[in-house]
Records
---
Amino acid sequence: MKLRLVAAERLKAVLGGDHFSPLGTGELADGRDRALANRLITTALRRHGQINTMLADLLDKGLPPRSGSFEAVLRLSLAQLVFLPDLGAHSALFLAVEAIKRDSKARHLSGLMNAVLRRAQANSARYGLMDDATLLPAAFAKGWTEAYGAEAVAGFAEALVEGAPLDLTLRDDDPELVEALGAERLIADSVRLESRDRPVEALPGYDEGRWWVQDAASAIPARLMVLDPNKAVLDVCAAPGGKTAQLIKAGYRVTALDNDAGRLERLRQNMARLGYSPKVIEADAANFDPATPFDGVLLDAPCSATGTFRRHPEVLWSRNAGDIAGRVRLQRALLANAYRCLAPGGTLIYCVCSLEPSEGEEQVDWALDALPGLELAPIRAAELAGLEQAVTPRGLVRTHPAMTPGNGNAGMDGFFVARFRRTG
């Protein structure tokens, strides 16, 4: 019962707009309970679109208003009944009813909960055969089909259900460590763990700072900063520090900039574990004015994060056109100031973990028009050995969740990368 209540509380918060983060030992001490609760939550989130279809079929009058934990408990229970049958139908019904009886705002709906779930149980086979097209919001599916094609979008739906493996960036080339991790090599210094039986902090090499967590797509932008050793590079919106670590590893003098004190503290902790010492500055990236311009600037701009839906499925349902338009305006302000921070002849890398062309390709057109002396420095396919298909004819990089890095599987995050050079 505690597991169910804790899971419902977390799912309710995410449905209300919070960012999803897995339950930790503070919420559920027992590892098995924690794993099960996280499985229930993530299944409910990944299957959100299909559960929406089920709710429309099961609730003639829709979800009751001001009903406390009713929706969260119902979604968890539907996820268990239809998509996790190994957990048993009886526990789904019994625990759902008992859970909302403990909520003063929902207990009057216990009869409705029981009736809805019994009806769902009777129709579970039919619900289990629902079209995968309902997994993705219609607006996103339409736009992505136009941008990437129907086959890729079908792969997006599969990637959403499968979730993301754990990708790591190695500090040093270390075949013995790769073997100890049980990992496979992807591209460059990225490796992948398809499965693991322990927390990240318990994996070989963690305490010694021999790797850091970083999706294979997220590791691409910093590799495209091609400067002479010891050049000064500014990492904008740097926390939690994966790209900062890559730039230091490449031999640059790195300044890590972010406006969030909490995230910067996490960056400092990560750098300490890795044995790296960047200069760290807390400031607003839109107004930062360095005394001396930088030879390189890497801007991983705040964005809709739609490319991360394998790990954060909630972004599919919490983003709308207005949100994305606001991100586009912010990105342009940050791009303009990143350009001002760049010395003549310097390199600017712009990237976002978004699948939206308005945050990627269209921002390139804006920057080239609005920022005098800025030109594209096209990325060559040879620079992304093992992922040549991600390089567009224009010399930009576009990855998506149906794209496979190297010989790996399970896809990768959706990322966009452009490289510019300031000529004057």
Note: Residues 321-340 form the longest helix (20 residues).
---
Amino acid sequence: MEGSTALSTHTDEAAPGARPPQVRQPRLVIAVDGPSGSGKSSVCRAAATQLGAAYLDTGAMYRAATWYCLDQQVDLDDEDAVALAVEELPLTISTDPQHQTITVGQADISAEIREPRISEKVSEVATNRRARTLLVAAQRRIIDEAGFIVAEGRDITTVVAPDAQVRVLLTASAEARLRRRGAQLGGTQDAEALKRQVLERDKKDSTASNFTEAADGVAVLDSSDLTFEETVNSLIGRVEQAQGAGA
């Protein structure tokens, strides 16, 4: 790929059995933003699988960049050093919703980027303006190449893909988000650790992007009192509505 990062992508075909879209459009982008623990990744992955779309977890890219900086012993307080590391980042990310792999060089770090030590440091990379610019450019290339894709993160609806046909802010109460992240981590984190990884991280990241309030034209999907299936179906319903409007 052209660009200032070493980013590359796998655009594997959707798995057999995935529901094909009702109307296949040349470009159909579903952009979903939201805070930590809102369920973005699991909901978007499930929706992409059912729709037969590609899937992009932009948060995984920031986590991979954080892992790389820590692995290379880059001082996260040195903005120039972090930006240089991201520029050189040899990242490969899969866009198959049923087979998510993230590699840096030859190392598969799909599991490692979900560790608490990454969660507690990722904001320091995500709020680095130069690093963010590099990653946003890479995300736009992935979206453009996929064409039909569910992309989720914190600034997808406003910065990365503001022209997406479906733009949703997926949110939930703080209590629900803490509970979900705790369950995701298998109960290994105490209450204070969860607050650092969820609420405090959101506070830090909000200095770089606004993902707590919906921008103009962005629909709000509050999953606090919805089951996982209801949340996925609600998102798919918005996509099908957009597909019908574009027919």
Note: The domain at 8-13+26-245 is CATH 3.40.50.300 (Rossmann fold).
---
Amino acid sequence: MTTDAVSLPTLPGTSGPSRAFSRSVYAKTLFDNRRVLAVWALATGLLAMAYAGFYPQLTANAADSVPEAMRGFGFDDLTSAAGYLQGAVFGLLVPLLATFYGAATGARMISADEESGYLDLLLAHPISRTQLLLHRIAALATGAVLIATAVLGAMLTVRTSAKLDSVPVAGFTAQAVNLALLALVFGALATAIGAATGKGRATVFGVTAGAGVLAYALHGFAPQTGADWLRHLTPFHYYIGGEPLRNGFQLADVGVLTATTAVLVALGAWRFSRRDIGR
């Protein structure tokens, strides 16, 4: 499998940047989704910054008042900077945003084109189905890295003012890498479902987002039922279970998330290359 550049035709009258980015499926996908990616990155970064900035105002009473049911979501140690960030920032809304980014973007990668009929036009050019899928996954991954970079930049921006200096830069970086990989897992899942089944964009998004929310809930509530082992079945365990903010890079966790993505992409490509896409 390769992701070599595949030239696409450009329409007369299109802008210079559009013609430049139309030289490959990967570049054109990024260009077409540039505004959406910018909004995802900006919104996630600002949300992370806002929640991180609240740490200095946290009191011991507020930390003690956290419901027991929320402790499985990382709210078991709000007194330390790493513990607060693991719960309030990287354990709550930020991973859910990454999950929804993956589901929404992955649903567009193949399903939207097939639904609109544009996929037939794409495949009429010298590009294989596998190449197309790999170019789209590469663009999705670039977006995930952009979001993670925005979050990392936000954390480093408020690190001193929000009294988060006890968390090393390596810890923030490791958590950002895991965030990108989490988004990529669900992006690969959505892309694979669309490529393998030919279902519409809304269906693929709904299935993937639903799976993400269920996995998130399972990871959070499993300790309440005494079934901690169930956490190992969810990508959220490998995203944050190793506490990268405290411990830095956990190569085993990174390996599991990367391998999961590779398996999903391979299965999607295998099925996509064999099924009838005619409607």
Note: The chain has a mean pLDDT of 87.
